Amino acid sequence: MPANPPTAPSKELHVFPNPAPERDYVIQFQVPEFTCHCPLTGQPDFAHFTIDMIADRLCVELKSLKMYFWSYRNEGAFHEKVTNTILDDIVQATDPRFIRITAKWYVRGGIFTNVVAEHRKKGWKPQPVVALPRLGQESGIA
Fold first, then answer.
1. CATH code reported for the domain at 15-139
2. Per-domain residue ranges for the chain?
3. Which of 38, 52, 89, 95 is the catalytic position?
4. Which of 11, 12, 38, 142 shows the smallest number of beta carbons within 10 Å?
5. Would you call 38 a catalytic residue per the annotation?
6. Other C-beta atoms lying within 10 Å of the C-beta of residue 58
7. Which segments of 1-140 are extended strands (E)?
8. Distance between CA atoms of residues 22 and 54, nearest Å
9. Does the structure show a pLDDT above 60 at 1?
10. Taking the chain, what is the end-to-end CA distance rounded to the nearest angstrom?
11. Contact 45, 79 (CB under 8 A)
């Protein structure tokens, strides 16, 4: 008998306080094994999700995010709908300063689909980008 039995899929997202709310920093989640199925044909759909998020007061807890993504495994969903629903659910749970979800759907009938959805908290402005030199040729180090 395993010490920690597997947890069931769930749509509940757990949160915890942002440990550095005074700072804009990017949290990135990679979900390379997302599965659901086509609501028309029932065929499986596979995607690689990338979530880039700048938290405000709350961060999403990783295990609950994993169980949340798992909950889609047996659901029928169009690519555009499921991507936007995931964005809405994370925004509702965490109220981030910024979040962008990029869903790269694997080929179906010779067509790849990429869906990008984002949310910006009203009034939030990102800090200017700082361009740093890359190591190597540009810095004089071969």
1. 3.30.1130.10
2. 15-139
3. 38
4. 142
5. yes
6. 17
7. 15-17, 27-37, 44-54, 58-60, 98-108, 111-120
8. 11
9. no
10. 54
11. yes
- 69-96 pLDDT, tens per residue? 999 998 999 999 999 999 999 999 999 9
Which residue's structure tokens are 């890359």? 134
Q: Name the 3-class secondary structure at 13.
A: coil
Confidence check: pLDDT of 109 > 90: no
| Options 24, 36, 45, 56, the catalytic residue | 45
Measured CA to CA, the distance from residue 74 to residue 60 in angstroms comes to 23
Instruction: Work out the pLDDT band at 139, boundaries 50, 70, 90.
Output: low
Between the alpha carbon of residue 15 and those of residues 18, 52, 59, 131, the distances in Å are 9, 16, 5, 32
**Known active-site residue 45:** yes
Model pTM score: 0.86
Distances in whole angstroms, Cα of residue 44 to Cα of each of 71, 73, 76, 91, 113: 14, 9, 9, 27, 14
Residue matched to tokens 């979900």: 31
Per-position DSSP letters for 110-132, written without gaps between them: TEEEEEEEEEE-TT--PPPPPP-
